[in-house]
């Protein structure tokens, strides 16, 4: 399985769902639909997929997106959720539940209920990460030598300007 590596400076989020009560083979059919796609497109695909496991995978994907946002907030950087891609996703086999079913003449037939571990990773597109890094460098250069309240005021003005542009 080929996995995409996350470059330096990119923000990534990882989420795992363990012991999901579905066969790994069935889950892989749905996971293959979203691998390598934009996170927003992957959510739309999962929402309209007529498989029971799609809800569990959608929940895991949403968790990975939230983890990436949280990681960006903790680092003090801005993250555009529209630039997130599903970089890697896989389904591994979990433990099997062994059960017995009554059979004729006092015997028992053994069957297994399979479980899965679902792993989804999202990351910024490399162009978005480069743009964000350049913007942060320009911001640092603009506020070089400026201290305290003036820096906060400049940031607040820039934030209002960005919000006004988004509304238009």
Ordered list of secondary-structure elements with their pairings:
Elements lengths: L11 E9 L3 H11 L4 H9 L5 H23 L8 E10 L3 E6 L5 E6 L2 E9 L1 H17 L5 H20 L1
Antiparallel strand pairs: 1-5, 2-5, 3-4
The CATH homology group name of the largest domain: Ribosomal protein L22/L17
Question: What structural class do you assign from the helix and strand content?
Answer: alpha+beta
Q: Domains counted in the coordinates: how many?
A: 2
Overall pLDDT metric: 87
| Most strands sheet | 3 strands, antiparallel
- Which strand order spans the largest sheet, edge to edge or round the barrel? 1-5-2
Q: How would you sum up this structure, described in words?
A:
The protein has 168 residues and is of the alpha+beta class. The mean pLDDT is 87. It is elongated, with a radius of gyration of 22 Å. The protein folds into 2 domains: 12-124, Ribosomal protein L22/L17 (Ribosomal Protein L22, Chain A); 126-168, no CATH class. Helix 2 (39-47) packs antiparallel against helix 3 (53-75). The longest helix has 23 residues, at 53-75. The protein has helices spanning 24-34, 39-47, 53-75, 126-142, 148-167, and strands spanning 12-20, 84-93, 97-102, 108-113, 116-124. The strands form 2 sheets. The protein has a 3-stranded antiparallel β-sheet.
């Amino acid at each position: 399985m080929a996995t995409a590596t996350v470059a330096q400076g990119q923000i990534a989020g990882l989420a795992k769902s363990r012991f999901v009560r579905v066969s790994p083979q069935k889950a892989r059919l749905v996971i293959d639909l979203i691998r390598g796609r934009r996170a927003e497109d992957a959510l739309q695909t999962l929402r309209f997929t007529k498989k029971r496991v799609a809800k569990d995978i959608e929940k895991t994907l949403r968790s990975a997106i939230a983890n990436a946002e949280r990681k960006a907030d903790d680092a003090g950087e801005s993250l555009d959720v529209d630039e997130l891609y599903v970089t890697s996703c896989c389904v591994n086999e979990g433990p099997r539940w062994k059960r017995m079913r009554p059979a004729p003449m006092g015997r028992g037939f053994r069957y297994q209920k399979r479980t899965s571990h679902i792993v989804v990773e999202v990351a910024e597109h490399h162009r978005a990460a480069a743009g964000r890094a350049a913007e942060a460098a320009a911001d640092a250069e603009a506020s070089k030598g400026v201290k305290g309240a003036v820096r906060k005021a400049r940031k607040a003005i820039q934030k209002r300007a960005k919000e006004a542009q988004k509304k238009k």
